[in-house]
Specification:
The complex is a heterodimer. By secondary structure, chain A is mainly alpha-helical. Chain A is built from 44 helices and 5 strands. The chains are: A mainly alpha, B mainly alpha.
Chain lengths: 906, 446
Amino acid sequence: MSRFFAGGSDSESDSSEEEVPQPTFGKISTTYAFSDDEEDVKRVVRSAKEKRYEELSNIIKNIRNSKKIKDMSSILTSFEDLVRAYTKALRVITKEENGITPRFYIRCLAELEDFINEVWEDRDGRKNLSKNNLKSLGTLRQKVRKYIKDFEVEMKKFREAPDAESEEEVQKAESESESEDEDVKKPAPAVKAVSFKKEEKAPKPAKADDDSDSSVDWGSSDDSETESSEDENVYTSIREKFLKKQPTDKEDKYDKDDKKKEKKVKEKTHKKKEDDDEEGWETVTKGSLVEKPKMFAKDAEIDETLVLNKLLEIMSARGKNRTDRKMSIELLYELKHIAELHKMNVAIIAKILYSIITAIFDYNPKISEPMKIEFWDKLLKAQQDLLAILLSQKESVTLAYGITEDQEQLETAPFFIRGCALAIVEKLDDEFIKLLKECDPHSNDYVERLKDEVNVTKIIDSVSEYIERVGNSNEICRVYLRKIEHLYYKFDPTVLNKKYGKLPNTTRTSVDDMQKLCNFIYTNDETDRIRTRAILVHIYHHALHDNWFQARDLVLMSHLQDNIDSADPPTKILYNRMMANLGLCAFRQGNIKDAHRCLVELMVTAKPKELLAQGLLPQRQHERSVEQEKVEKQRQMPFHMHINLELLECVYLVSAMLLEIPYIAAHEFDARRRMISKTFYQQLRSSERQSLVGPPESMREHVVAAAKAMRCGNWQACANFIINKKMNTKVWDLFYEADGVREMLSKFIKEESLRTYLFTYSNVYSSISIPSLAEMFELPKSKVHCLISKMIINEELMASLDDPTETVEMHRSEPSRLQALSMQFTDKVTNLVDVNEKIFDMKQGNFFQRGNMGNRDRAFNRNQNNQNNNWGQQRRDNRRENRGNRQNRNNQQQQQQQKESIIEEE
Amino acid sequence: MVTPTETETMPQPHKFDLTAKNCEFLDRHLTFPLLEFLCIKAIYNKQEMLEFILDTVNKTNMIDYIMDTRKRLNLGDEMPEELNQRKTKVLQTLKELQSEVAPIMKATEILKNSEMMKDSKTFLNVLQKDYNFKSENVESAYKLAKYLYECGNYQDSTSYLYFCLLVMSPNDKNYLNVLWGKLAAEILILNWSSALEDLSRLREFIDNSNFTPMQALQQRTWLIHWGVLVFFNHPKGRDLIIEMFLNKPLYLNAIQTMCPHILRYLATAVIINRQKRNALKDLIKVIQQESYNYRDPITEFLECLYVNFNFEQARMKLHECQTVILNDFFIVSCLDEFVENARLMIFETFCRIHQCITISMFADKLNMKPHDAECWIVNLIRNARLNAKIDSKLGHVVMGTPPLSPYQQLVEKIDSLSVRSEHLAGLVDRKNKQKNQESIDSWKYY
């Protein structure tokens, strides 16, 4: 870099807006003036000090530039250069400045340190750095730390009063630059330009001081960055100037600089306006700008319009590509603070709060990822505040979606604010779920997050209170849906206590709340989705509280099964969850068949985990793409809403066992036997395949062992396998009233074992005494009587009761071989007739179609038609022949032929 | 034979009283017979009942009935002046209305026996042409009919309503009301056959017109309740009630959602209807489904007998049923039939399960004396409804049901096959002919 350039830049920075290096040049400004001129006129011999300082400041500038783009490796190299340059300059410094380290150098070091610390602290940001940068950052940090130890005293001094001096210097610099410019013989335009700069610059130190909204203007995150950005402007503008050096019209050049600068600075379109704005401020406060420009200005000027304009500015930057979202959140907070300080009306505060909420939502650019905890906390607070305002100011403040921007009324009551309380609470809720999903469910984090559930539900409650007042029925439906979705999976023991009469009938339970909210949705909802979800949630809640009949009736009446296939995935998941819970409820109530029916669809696929959205299955052969996986992950349920899968499976297997084992026993030799539960069969078979079966360990093994015991009618063993300590802790204790369930289970096991026993061993007995059966199965005699009666009526058991002797007389006679075969044969013939009828029905449809086609474009189909006819003819002949010869022919043969003809047909 | 335990389990009659529930769905006038019935049964305090009746009657124009009720309440013989005023006023309005309708009625009188009465369209044409008939006349006839009904003059009301039905188009806004009014009036004058006609007409109308689901449900619920009145009084009603309530899904749904207590009447109808035994299965399904919602001794009786096969409990329930039926206006007339059939049901089920029964135990189950029970069984055997023998030495009944032989099973299974095959062959032949025809047709074009 040429010395011209360097020199030019320095002098330029004086007159433009450089403030950092100024202190160094305070004393030598005259020389600088020359250097500026020098470009126009001639070279000047410079002192050693000058040379060294130039070098230093160049490097410092480089560092600043690199800082802005976070280019750590170049910072590192620059820093090393800097240290080297400083050692070179040290000699001069000791001579000229009595060994006092120049302030600009200290400043640079301090800033560098701050910057490194900041980058280091920002973990997320750090992750985004490239490997190379990361490495450099580490070394840089160490080096800087080591190096600044030598300057500790100076740094401390600097940090104590960085701004006071800089202000002074600014003043100095200003006066100097003015005089300078006058020196340079372009009095009028230069002064004008400088004064403009001054106006622009003057408020800055003060603003940076109180960390107020001024930094928005620059759109960067902190002071150092603001400055560095300025630096860059200077730098680039200087380069520009250097390139287009035209000694004749400096005025023009200044203007150009100005424009360029404006473009370079991070703001884009609105920047201009802002500048104007600030100019406006300045003109008013110009006189007393030396003391406390900003605060005074605000005290004098702040009113509603001003705040609103500011708000508008901040919000209009929303969504722009390079807007710093974090900054705008901070700014909004600041603005709110100011508004509160000045006791603005509630509507403005509400409006700002609303803006804060939306800004926080904006902060996270990715939908799939949760927001940061700190923002989450802020968000909760902001929403609570906003709702507090909305609810406390009953009639005077209205926040509604329907209000257009023109209709907004923020200055006089009644206030109208544009916005949607419902939308933000829905978003809040979604974010909450996302946050929960992010946490490890077994960690304390999760518990911590979950504590916010209370707040979220409170917010939803207050929103619903608010919406009930102002919203239409559709909005109320929506907020109610949110409400019930937070309610439905929570178990409320008061419901059961009320049912048993332990609590007075007037107690309000969650079931009642649910009923009320759902009824409203049923009657008022127009979108089908909310109603469907409400029904599902309602059923779930009933099922959770053992209201089996109500839950079942709701399922039946809503015809959910018919059209759930066309629903969206989250609703389908909810449906699955509902079904699972309904199955559990049926089981608890002793409706084994219903329990099995509810659960079979979930369990038959062997992936209930996926169906209930409680975790992804391990990937097999890239079944799903990354995209798909992402989508599926989003649908997962948060952990606290999970249904215990082992419980679910156990309930399913036990109910399958209770149904399947007697059925197997009853139809042992039946050719047409179908299995009730495939999953249960698989379990049974896999255990049978094992050569050695050890004592059961897992839940499944327990159930299989129990099933085997039941097969022999050994109810005692069966009950022991199902109900024991291990199974209690694993499964049964998860039920609210575990004892009741266990009692019910052992009753069912006894009954079904009795049935199995009778089926299996009835051919051994010619009569069994009922009392002895009752004793065997520890059932009351009447119960045994009922069970046997039922079996006889249903023709499951060929027997009849003998009342005087209280015995069961078996009628079952083993059919002879011939009889058995002929029975089998009749079965097959029946099947054949069935198939024939089915085929005829099918063909009928086909004939119709063909006929039509034939008429429509005859020429084309003629051939085909004939062929078909011939085929049909043949077939029919075939059949007629068959029928005629039925008596004579061997039946088997006939069947063969028929089958052939069927195949032909197909 | 009333054992001490039975007296203990005597149900409190009002526990199963459905009058209140039923009255919700009945016309005010239709409730009077029910209320009067309750008065007689003395389940509730008679004084209160009468006061309630007076209250209800006061809302109608039946001044004589009001007076009568007041008398029964011993409120003094002389009636308040206001009542007399009302009476004169009612009579006056009646006259006014009648004079409005008179000309048209005369015309109807004349036309009554002619051919034209048979077709409502021609009738209407003639009326319009010859007698200057306007739509307002229908309106006033309707009003008059309504007023007459309110005064308790049901007989006249029906004739006017009949006229209305004849000339009104089904799109008229009052058409539904006329139908309902006609049904109510027919019921109240105990003209069951025309009531049944009206009932089916009303049902058709409700099923075919496009109400919203809620409205339709409500209309059906009313129809069901009014129907119960008709069905239990009409000789054909016992089949029809099953047909309508159980086999029509719309009405079954209405019963299940709105008024499960109707199951009592449905159950009674099924029990006393020997021919419709196959309806029992469906009914029991429904009863089980609704068991959490509604249960009374009659439904429980069926449940005990056919679901739990608990004969002891069934016996107790049967006993309770008797009190329930005795106190229910709708079915009180079927008490004997019910008991008889219920016994038979128990016995039938018993026989299917047992091969040997002691008579004394059995008599106990049927609430009969052993001697009577024996006679009863003898009768059954004699009427060839039971394949059994009595062993009087041991006091046993021995069933003669032989176990099903394999041959019989075989025959049963193949029985239907030949018929089905024949049918199929016929169909194929027919198709074939059609086909040939078609192919010939398609050849014609070339």
